[in-house]
Amino acid sequence: MEEFHKVRRLPPYVFEQVNRLKASARSRGADIIDLGMGNPDLPTPKSIVDKLCEVVRDPRTHRYSSSRGIPGLRRAQASYYARRFGVKLDPETQIVATLGSKEGFANMAQAITAPGDVILCPNPTYPIHAFGFIMSGGVIRSLQAEPDAGFIPALERGVRHSIPKPLALILNYPSNPTAHVASLDFYKDVVAYAKKNDIIILSDLAYSEIYFDGNPPPSVLQVPGAIDNTVEFTSMSKTFSMPGWRMGFAVGNERLIAALTRVKSYLDYGAFTPIQVAATAALNGDGADIAEVRDIYHKRRDVMVDSFGRAGWTIPAPAASMFAWAPIPEPFRHLGSLEFSKLLIEHADVAVAPGVGFGEHGDDFVRIALVENEHRIRQAARNIKRFFWSSAKQPNNVVPLAAHR
Ligand SMILES: Cc1ncc(COP(=O)(O)O)c(C=O)c1O
After folding, report:
1. What angle, 0 to 180 degrees and rounded to 10, lies between the N-to-C axes of helices 14-27 and 337-348?
2. What are phi and psi of 348, to 5 degrees?
3. CA separation for the pair 399, 343 (Å, rounded)
């Protein structure tokens, strides 16, 4: 049977192939160390879970909730932006709660996109950044992911050569998968260009609090006047280890927030009230839980960079996010990221995410998620070292005989 129009535009998840291989290795009894999925493994802090349990006992909270978020939750998000970024937001008109930032992003795409609208999107990037718009009838023009001196010229080329003129530009720093972080000066240049060219900015700041070495990433909304054309998405999934709770936010330009709020009012009744109340308590907390989560990822990062380095795999230390963007070691690079990821499962019992799953420009890399404990990360490095050694000793190097690109 012919696939449906929208389904045809959603290619099978590349990660699915790795997941299948992982499952079959596990069914054979292999102890796979899973650094593939970006699924935080840490438990949600006890105070947040306790708040949920307390509130859920009140039957009044069992009714439909508020789609845009209960007022206290939106006020708590406004306080967070004021505290953390010095950005003042009106909780009534400039903030909407979302069912995770992914839902917010996808429904923003739905709210603003007309068929054929062009969206400037980093490549590689987190898949919803492109596919949220593709599902909404938009067309993607890829941009480099690095927030360096080449970005504005690439942006200018993208705008000059797009018909119609692009509707929106996606930013995601700290980036998933590349872990790049943008500076406030970078944002200033991008905002100035986007405003001059009447382009909407959608910034995904899901990793606002997962940063290392004392360098908190800025918000694009810190740029004076950015709110005229910008919406930013944040998430409680990583900051508070609440991925399954589905709680995030969109904040910024009133017209864009109103459009998203309207679409959501047709689609959902908001998160379960006890979740919204517990999320409010989390945001109003003293920050100790956030610091603890950050510290755990920081230690894991250091262990990963050190132990993988000693295994012969030099990986740049990410400055933020819960990922390392690891160049495929030279002898394996020609295989591409999917085949290399398969080899790591089969020969090292380690799962990583193939870079090509985030876009064609990711194919020389794999993404390593810091979602196993330090002991398991060291074990992964030992397994990989053994695999590198054994493949180097093969007379004709069996590795390249695996399916070529
Ligand atoms: C860049 C980025 N944005 C959004 C999300 C989704 O976050 P949420 O759980 O809030 O939907 C993720 C999750 O991995 C992410 O990496």
Report:
1. 10
2. -130, 0
3. 8
Measured by CA distance, the residue closest to atom 1 of ligand 1 is: 176
Strands 95-98 and 248-252: antiparallel
Pairwise CA distance, residues 359 & 175, whole Å: 13
What angle in degrees, to the nearest 10, is found between the helix axes of 46-56 and 273-283? 140
Q: Which domains does the chain have, with CATH numbers?
A: 5-43+289-393 (3.90.1150.10), 46-284 (3.40.640.10)
Residue 232 CB less than 6 A away from ligand 1: no
- Grouped pLDDT means (10 residues each) for the chain, 405 residues: 85 86 94 94 96 98 96 98 98 98 97 98 97 96 96 97 96 98 98 98 98 96 98 97 98 98 96 98 96 96 98 97 97 96 96 96 98 98 96 61 42
Q: Which of 44, 204, 232, 235 to mutate to test the pocket of ligand 1 (most atoms within 8 A of CB)?
A: 235
Task: Kindly report the length of the chain.
Answer: 405
